[in-house]
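Pasting two entries for a bug report.
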Amino acid sequence: MKLDKKKSLLQKRRWRIRKKVKGSAERPRLAVHFSNKHIYAQCIDDVQGHTLAYVSSLAKGAEAKANSEGAAELGKLIAEKAKAAGIETVVFDRAGRRYHGCVKTFAEAAREGGLQF
């Protein structure tokens, strides 16, 4: 019961954020997802429904875990991949999570890597 309530509240937050956050080819949406073991991030063009750049802690080169250090590492890595794809500015989609802890660390590392949002 309690888990269902938490999941439904999280989904409502996601929908509320997604009403305001839209990605385009010029300014894609940087969506980040944290599971208990891994971190996933992608730059998405919502108009065409294409992923422009993608990175996760499951990749061969990434030794990141789902903590603040891993978030910082993947934030820099997504910034590099986005720059290689020709992306300068993004819209940050935190997927219903508070801008705190790993989410904040990820965003700051992506900004240090050269993304603007």
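Entry 2 (this is the one that rendered wrong in the viewer):
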Amino acid sequence: MPTRPSEPVLAWFRKALKSRGLNTAALAKRVGEKRGTVRNVLAGQEPLTVDQLMGWTQALELSLEELVGIDEGSLPEPVERPPTPDDAPILVDPYGIQAEQAFRLAFGLGCDFTFVADTAQLGESGVPPAVLARFAERLVLRLDAAYHRHNQPRFDAHGVTLVLSFDALYTCTLPWAAIQQVILDLVPPAPTAPQPEEPVDEPGGRPVLRLVT
């Protein structure tokens, strides 16, 4: 299939998001659109509208003049924010600690997720004592993808360090051993039309349908 005319513009937006440390959820929140719509447009599954072009450009503080006449070989490079030590790619290791891989996947996909932790192992985590007292057995927290960059996740062999909001902002280190469940809220893909079955001619010329298993 030929490349869609809007693909260079979509590539420009994807680069801009990456350079700013944002995900599709953060962009959707800024422009007031559904997350699934933003994700599907950036993936080339839905058309990019003029309203989206104007709104996204403004939300990401891009110059509309830079987008005029761009093509695959002349995409302008977005202005990048200063790199930080936590800018390493978020990858999944099938042989690593499962709780760590689940967190990396959730942050890498940029989706909302909920995790459950054993409260008994969080005494030194930095989570406020009042919160631990309220969740005496299991601490259940939900992280909104639109604020993932504010969580500032940092991973090490012991656990994950996150900036969490309770009555104020707290830097908390949760040991991997305490994490019992990680539940991802996935955005459904754009609907696709079912492909009709093609008729197959019999030797005698009469069309029949072939059962595919």
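Dev reply: Rendering is fixed now. As a check, the viewer should reflect this: The helical segments are 7-19, 24-31, 35-42, 50-59, 64-67, 98-109, 129-134, 148-151.
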